[in-house]
Amino acid sequence: MCGPIWRNLLRVLLLAAALTLATPAAAQAPSARIDLARDAAGASLALGWPVPVVTEVRQEGRELSLAFSRPLGTPPLESIPERLQGWVDNVLYGYDSLLLVLAEGVSAEVLRNGNGLRIAFSPDRRSRRTEETEAAERAAQRRIDYFTAVTLMDSGEVRQARGLLAGLLARDPADAQSTALLAQAEERLGRWRQAMRLYDRGLELTPDEPSLVAGKARLLHDRGDRLQVDHDLFRVRNADVQRVTRISGVTDLGRAIGGAGSSLLYSLEDRQVDVDVVQRLDGAPAPLHGSRRRAELTLLHDWPELEQSRVSLFLARGTAGAGYSHGWRHEDSETRTGIAWNEPSFAFLEGLVGGGRRDRLFLQHEERLSPRWIVTVGAGYNRYGLAGARDLARSATVEGSVRYILNQEGPLASVAYLLDAEYVGRRAERLNDQGAAFAPLPAATREVHGLQIAIDDQLTDYVRYAVQLGYAYDRRGKSGPQGAVSLGWEPNDNLEVGLRASHAQSTARGTANAVDAAGGYLIWRY
């Protein structure tokens, strides 16, 4: 708008200057009279001379240009915007030219006469819109935005969909359809507490809506408060037998004590160990038939921007420690890093006898490259010790996987390459009473490359199974087949029971013995 205004003003000023120099007597020419009027329905501006005048009129958008065959003289033209407020926004004038900038939504009709003109201002009826029309257009735009959000969700752009849906709800908090879709977006982003609140809000707007009921039930199933009891039997060929019972659970502190965004995780583990010969810290062999226990308490906090922190306390006989980890989540990836100090470690039989502990630093990352390809990588640094001897072995770990989803509907089937490697860089040795060298912790290097096929599916609405079959090749130890199978049954919404069994090679102890396991679990959701 400014470009045409200044061009017209420059033209006006140049023309005025030229005519002033050319006709000095112009100052004595008759001056125009101005007459302004306004009311609620419209306004008018009249310009007239005592002698005949010819007027040229041109309009471009809101700019109305008037050129006269006689000079304007000195009428109070600068008062036009103030006196016609709401009809004229601005005025520019020169020797024989006048430029009016009309207000938004105003039209002007120019009526010429022999000695001047009259301009009638009125609302531009072409710009007037009924409330019904505006409401219909808003509804149409809401539909467009909603289906755009659906498309973004389907293409994996969940954050963009979330922003669009949040805007829709800011304009219309009673939009049940957008509330339900935003709940799904928050759930997919891992913001399950926000998703739960949205499911509750959606059910207030549309009670008993099946999709909302199912969404809330799914969220409670996966994230709600629960108590779990596991019992497994592990038998290492030519070595030990362990019976492990674990009680664990999750309590949402947001409901318990108003701690929004926080949960309490806890576990208590009891191991019944039977082995005829195990090495003690002094190198003397002895049997072990007894129980070992460890406990863990974790405070988990979900931050607003898809971040999560965990603070943990560990306790076992002769060992107390702590840990901290932090995670960042995006639509298609998650990164976690953490540290643990004096964490009880039962990976070695020697640790069961002598109060094993581990200090650890780690970094893990998972990336969903596409709906079918998932990649994970991780690395860590470990220091192992026993009670009274903190630094007996050090190692670096590398882990990773590349998984391809073969079938996303029906039986969920996938094939994966897995890497599990630990490189021992230092292992302390001592002399026993006979003067022979021994390692108090026989940590061993392993580099296991595995191929795995996994199938997961529902047999019925309440019975689910999972099968994993593969082969593990240890470049530094013994290779062999591995596999696992599990079966879960949910007789009602609160109770789940299951059975499981597995076979693998144990190489972390340096024995490469086969490990067979069988057990079951019970989950109570409340």
UniProtKB/TrEMBL annotation:
<dbReference type="InterPro" id="IPR019734">
    <property type="entry name" value="TPR_rpt"/>
</dbReference>
<protein>
    <submittedName>
        <fullName>Uncharacterized protein</fullName>
    </submittedName>
</protein>
<keyword id="KW-0614">Plasmid</keyword>
<keyword id="KW-0732">Signal</keyword>
<dbReference type="Pfam" id="PF14559">
    <property type="entry name" value="TPR_19"/>
</dbReference>
<dbReference type="InterPro" id="IPR011990">
    <property type="entry name" value="TPR-like_helical_dom_sf"/>
</dbReference>
<feature type="signal peptide">
    <location>
        <begin position="1"/>
        <end position="27"/>
    </location>
</feature>
<feature type="repeat" description="TPR">
    <location>
        <begin position="176"/>
        <end position="209"/>
    </location>
</feature>
<keyword id="KW-0802">TPR repeat</keyword>
